[in-house]
């Protein structure tokens, strides 16, 4: 496995297959590229299935064990099943989706080799859901979650962004996963720096404290040092990157944008490297370069220079996290 200067091995890749989406969520950061509500890129700028598979075959050589397909909404790609079918067998394959297209397609995805799905679901309340996603698809999403469980795409992680609009629904969602086999809950800290509304922030520390009291046991996941709270039949994981040095020190993933740019960090777009029409040999070298240039985002590792560019803080040159 390739490792960066901070001792972080790259074990997973996250590939955005499109920036198109049928929702318009108020917290959307579009894999760090900015809100999907702006003009979307043309469909023909998206990586082709061949491009995606070529990339996966290269990173498999470097021991990458996991691939997550994301968007926008990745199920808007009609060739998603083909991409999954052609993903190297050695990789755990998962999908992050808004769930609307899972009814009728979950079984085909399972048959193609998909292991599990994460579905965005911010509330068990139709009106709140509509206000957050600007969509009337609540029932479809619930149906999609059932379809995923029935197809064995488990555990199905429900992704809930914790912010002003959802704070009142956290308890109900925790009860929901505690009572339903096959479901897990992922509470995602709101990221104002990507979406621009600090007033919507909720203190995630309070959610940790509340869950610590409620849980039967607590574990810490290697990836991002995330806490997992076990409540009844369910598991609740907290994704809390903001200003969290430990989270970044345990970051083991590289991203690919829908247009085929390698992206070393969710929060940065100044380090993008296009894979364009590259051969496998060229992708191999570019991937090595991107991994070598990765720097933990939170902590003292990066500083901005007078032109606003991120540069490595001199005192950390050559120092591992
Ligand atoms: N800052 C930061 N946020 C992340 C990172 N990974 C996930 N997140 C946040 O968590 C949200 C949901 O992530 P998912 O795509 O469902 O996947 P995940 O939870 O990271 O992955 P699995 O646990 O493997 O399913 C993302 O949209 C981000 O907001 C990361 O590496 N850095
Ligand atoms: S479903 Fe996902 S990609 Fe679509 S608008 Fe919501 S957060 Fe963004
Ligand atoms: S370095 Fe930190 S902010 Fe960047 S992708 Fe990794 S965990 Fe997220």
Automatic annotation (TrEMBL):
| Source taxon at top rank | Archaea
> Which residues bind [4Fe-4S] cluster 2 per the record?
248, 251, 265
SUPFAM superfamilies the record matches: Radical SAM enzymes
Q: Which residues bind S-adenosyl-L-methionine?
A: 27, 72, 120
Which Gene Ontology molecular function entries are recorded, alphabetically? 4 iron, 4 sulfur cluster binding; cyclic pyranopterin monophosphate synthase activity; GTP 3',8'-cyclase activity; GTP binding; metal ion binding; S-adenosyl-L-methionine binding
Q: Which UniProt keywords apply?
A: 4Fe-4S, GTP-binding, Iron, Iron-sulfur, Lyase, Metal-binding, Molybdenum cofactor biosynthesis, Nucleotide-binding, S-adenosyl-L-methionine
State which Enzyme Commission number(s) the record gives: 4.1.99.22
Q: Which residues form the Radical SAM core domain?
A: 5-233
Q: Which InterPro entries match?
A: Aldolase_TIM, Elp3/MiaA/NifB-like_rSAM, MoaA-like, MoaA_arc, MoaA_NifB_PqqE_Fe-S-bd_CS, MoaA_twitch, MoCo_biosynth_MoaA/MoaC, rSAM
Biological process annotations from GO: Mo-molybdopterin cofactor biosynthetic process
- Enumerate the NCBIfam families for this protein: moaA_archaeal (TIGR02668), PRK00164.2-1 (NF001199)
Task: Tell me the protein family, please.
Answer: Belongs to the radical SAM superfamily. MoaA family.
**Role:** Catalyzes the cyclization of GTP to (8S)-3',8-cyclo-7,8-dihydroguanosine 5'-triphosphate.
Q: Which PANTHER family match?
A: MOLYBDENUM COFACTOR BIOSYNTHESIS PROTEIN 1 (PTHR22960:SF0), MOLYBDOPTERIN COFACTOR SYNTHESIS PROTEIN A (PTHR22960)
Protein name in UniProt: Probable GTP 3',8-cyclase
Which gene is the coding source of this polypeptide chain?
Answer: moaA
